[in-house]
Amino acid sequence: METKLAAIRKIGGVTCSTPDDIVLGLESLKDEGDDLFIQSLNNAILEDDMDIICGHIDWFRRKLGKSCMDFDGRTLVASFYSQYFKQHTKDGEISSADFISDALEHFS
User: Fold this and answer.
1) E strand or H helix at 90
2) How far is the C-alpha of 102 from the C-alpha of 24, rounded, in Å?
3) From residue 12, how far is each of 22, 23, 52, 68, 78 by CA, in Å?
4) Which of 31, 56, 58, 90 could disulfide-pair with 68, CB 3.0 to 4.6 Å?
5) Which residue in 11, 13, 87 sits closest to 56, CA to CA?
6) The whole model's pTM is what?
């Protein structure tokens, strides 16, 4: 069963309607430059955008030869995210980097 996104969106020129599409869009952003890629994570964290946050985790998982997370994995990320930011502030690139580092330890 295909994992549904909260909304169809365009990332890096890719129309994204699946987690795989988001990975492709993020790869396109990465190809354009690290700043765009990092900014997409920062924005996702500030906007509580689980599709993009999970997309960043899936992007790293792909580098390890793994598939995108399923619905249950994405639900665990949302719970982890909620707990993480009860204990930490959302204050830019450093908090985004710390979050993604901790999340990758759990989900990659």
Assistant:
1) none
2) 23
3) 9, 10, 12, 18, 24
4) 58
5) 11
6) 0.92
- In DSSP notation, 6-68 reads SS-EEETTEEESSHHHHHHHHHHHHHH-HHHHHHHHHHHHHTT-HHHHHHHHHHHHHHTTPPP
pLDDT tens digit sequence for 3-55: 778 889 999 999 999 999 999 999 999 999 999 999 999 999 999 999 999 99
Interatomic CA distance for residues 10 and 72, integer angstroms: 24
Q: Which residue has the tokens 């710390």?
A: 98
User: Cβ distance 66 to 73 under 8 Å?
Assistant: no
| The two structure tokens encoding residue 107 | 């989900």
